[in-house]
Amino acid sequence: MGEPVLYTVSEGVCTITLNRPERLNAFNVEQHEGFIGALKEAARDPAVRCVVITGAGRGFCAGQDLADIGNQPIGQIVRRYYNTWIGLIRSLEKPVLAAVNGVAAGAGVSLALACDLVLMAESASLVQAFVNIGLVPDSGASYFLPRLIGYHKAMELALFGDKVSAAEAQALGLCNRVVPDEGFQAAVADWAGRLARGPRSMGWIKRLIGRGLERPLDEVLELEAHLQEAAAASADAREGIRAFSERRAPNFTGR
Ligand code: T3D
């Protein structure tokens, strides 16, 4: 068995691959630790301009490894690992793209929903599997689901635990795009490349849209003013405005 998490950086795109394909990339402690380390490194490394999270083999992530459950108190595992990586994805000031190459279940769905953009391969699917084994949604599922699709649909998925096809996920608003399997890697590379060539303000846009969901209008207006000052002072904003007046495409550097 190889490393449970693979990490590469190329042309500004960091790709983090969950790599336990024989278990559909379900999380054990080693995979949690590798994933948390990878997210911290992606946040720290200035060469990383966007992050792609995907799975090896035919699955994206099947949530908790059920062969590994019960070795530690569940609340402790959820707080120490799942909650930590969900927080890291949300606070990472770089766009994070979930490339859902195959089935996602339980916390694997939460992982996709925590990302900023979600691309699904046509054959991929999502399963709110918690109820099927007598558990409750975790890793932010109860936060993301009703916000994305409303209370009743969230309840339907969470109470019945049925498989949702990629096409249905898109119709519900659980992913941005569905791509035919054969074109999936190219579509992921296209979006990741665009994000990696984007300006520094992309990270601040992520912070703003996230706060816009949660905070009252007056606070968000103030945060917009504050971050607009920061954005306007960035090298990328200077380049963007110069490029506009020179009628050419901007060359952003992420600073
Ligand atoms: O512990 C805590 O801290 C609590 C935290 C909980 C967070 C959670 O995520 S709870 C939810 C855990 N996940 C599940 O309940 C999902 C279980 N898996 C499934 O329901 C199905 O496998 C799928 C719907 C994901 C895929 O179905 P299918 O038919 O495409 O594949 P399969 O044949 O069921 O699975 C393929 C293999 O992966 C199989 O192994 P085998 O027989 O080839 O040796 C299967 O056992 C293994 N596998 C799939 N999911 C898991 C798993 N092994 C361990 N843990 C899994 N979650």
TrEMBL record:
One GO term in the molecular function aspect is: isomerase activity
Keywords, in A-Z order: Isomerase
Family matches, as InterPro entries:
ClpP/crotonase-like_dom_sf, Enoyl-CoA_hyd/isom_CS, Enoyl-CoA_hydra/iso, Enoyl-CoA_hydra_C
Q: What Enzyme Commission number(s) appear in the record?
A: 5.3.3.18
Q: What class of enzyme is it?
A: isomerase
* Segment forming the signal sequence: none
Q: Does the keyword Protein biosynthesis apply?
A: no
Instruction: Return the similarity comment.
Output: Belongs to the enoyl-CoA hydratase/isomerase family.
Protein name as it appears in the record: 2-(1,2-epoxy-1,2-dihydrophenyl)acetyl-CoA isomerase
